[in-house]
Specification:
It is a single chain. By secondary structure, this protein is mostly helical. The protein folds into 2 domains: 80 residues, no CATH class; 44 residues, no CATH class. 53% of the residues lie in helices and 6% in strands. It has 7 helices and 2 strands. 6% of the residues are buried.
Amino acid sequence: MGSHHLLEALIRAEGSMAATVLARLGVSPDAIADTVDEVDADATTDATPEETAARKMEIRVEGDEVHLVFRDEGTLRLTKAVNELTGDGPIHATGPVAGRFVPLWTQLNQLLIELMRTLKPEAEGEGKDVGKAGLLVRRVLHDRLRRRRPPMEG
């Protein structure tokens, strides 16, 4: 979570000091959201090298397959090196390397479950355990995930 998520949550905290000050300064939630979408997070101190690489990733469904796409130079370089060692074909989770794929499978499924929780509408009574601040941040993340559609690279 970056400072931009906190900023968006602050202005949406109705009746809070932060929301009141920002409103008096003429700043609206939509203006913040639009500006956040325009600013390159990779050019700020919020972005770690891992987050910069992760922003180039994509998960998509094609038919009955899930494609996990990495576009960062480091992963591409490493994958090409392993591909050369395996005969330039796909790297399959079979034989002695099958167990090495288990953490990737586990982490991807956990990520998808977390994304579902973030994207689905809040259930009746949900949010009591999260707290007001956590609920605001969750709403901001939900809004950002829905409005943020990076252009397909290719």
